[in-house]
Amino acid sequence: MDRKRDKKQEKKQVRKKKESPVAVLCSTLGTVILVGLVVLCLPLTVPRVLGFEIYTVVSGSMEPAIPTGSLAYVQGAEPEEIEEGDVIAFYGGRESTAIITHRVVENNTLEGEFTTKGDANEKEDVSPVPYRELIGEVAYTIPTLGWAAQTLTSTWGKASAAAAIGGALVLHLLGAWIRNHREKKEEAQ
């Protein structure tokens, strides 16, 4: 008789240890969503902490070297250290808020200005770029990530990210509730 009781208790303990597949699925999905959001945000946050400015390339003037939609990581630089062939980011003039990314054709240190040209353009830019307009040197680019960054930082993108975080939390809470409910049900038996 004791053996039967012991076997019954063993089965009960084995049942207790077995997780609900639905609870595991909910927790796993919640975790995957949260990790995915973190991974999406890393290329936008970590470089900024390291001192880079980040811009999306919206024209084809630097193709094929820098495709439209690329994310450009720009690091501050001293104008005198910029060399011919370096790609720089600069303001498009006093009246413009546009940021342009072009290659340096000449660094005229006497005049304190750069002559620049887009790789895809036939001619050099019309106006030289004064040193004061320099943002920095393009350290590296990641193709197509610029479009994702623009989407993620838009109002719609932020709302979607917030909804995804909320959904992930709901999934985690649902998984915990299912586990708790199942444990209480098993204890009652």
Automatic annotation (TrEMBL):
What is the designated name of this protein? Answer: Signal peptidase I
- One Gene Ontology cellular component annotation held by this UniProt entry: membrane
The record's section on CDD domains has: S26_SPase_I (cd06530)
Enzyme Commission identifier(s):
3.4.21.89
Is Transmembrane there in the keyword field?
yes
Is Heme given among the entry's keywords?
A: no
> Which processes are annotated in GO (biological process)?
signal peptide processing
- Which residue spans traverse the membrane? 21-46, 159-178
* Broad class of enzyme this protein falls into: hydrolase
Q: Where does the record place it?
A: Membrane
Query: What UniProt keywords are attached to this protein's entry?
Result: Hydrolase, Membrane, Transmembrane, Transmembrane helix
Q: Name one GO molecular function term.
A: signal peptidase activity
